[in-house]
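Reading is simple: the token line describes the chain's fold. The lines below illustrate.

. . .
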Amino acid sequence: MTTLYELADAHPVIGRRWSQDQAPEQERILCLARDALDFIFATGQRYDFEDFFNSSDSRRLPPGGGNAELSERMDVTKRFFEKVREQPELAEEVAQSQAILDAIQYIESTGQQDAFAAYLQHVEANAPPFVVASFDTRETAQSWLANHPHPPDPASVLIANEFHDVVYDRETNLRRLPNSRALKWYLEELVEKEQPVPVASFETREEADAWWRRQSEPASRAWVRVGGEIYLAAYYPNIQHRALFPLSLAHPG
């Protein structure tokens, strides 16, 4: 059985096969493997993953998914890493390949193909860090965490549109919501890759918020100008939440 440590430590087998001139099909395989691993952690399912492989459910055949294209990509990825597992370049690649295979099996067997497909869209759009919930106040968030029967861990949430980590230890029942620097790091990396070009300008934050709420089919992210400051407008379809993040968070004064 793949341990949580092995699941978190499986990325090197992907990195060793990544190259700038690789075939598009291999890039799709490696990206899906990476994203399958990240999906479990981003959605806070490490304990669910562990419990699944400790139960008889892990031996069931996965249910058929409704997304034929994604199912085919997952099958191709499984065949690729089954071959790597049988013919590893390094001894540790056996466990790393198995972790990827177990991650895909978990997603399939628990019927999460649609959620995984949505996560892939989030990643491909280079959207802001994934979150599982949003709260207006810290008190509301604390109440949610205190009363949650199985808090997601690891995961991120928004509190008044500020990022916080969800920390939960099942053995001690420790529950915390520390501040997260994930958005700062994301914005720093984003502006290194692209020039922020606003698609709309507003005099006030209220006008910008109202405009973003009116978008019937919002993009995952878009730059806007509010007064003299640039903001990143973000949309999280998994929780139906829209936010405006000031670019100044990347380089606070």
The first strand starts at residue 133 and ends at 135. The chain has two domains: 4-124, 133-250. The first helix runs from residue 4 to 8. The radius of gyration is 20 Å.
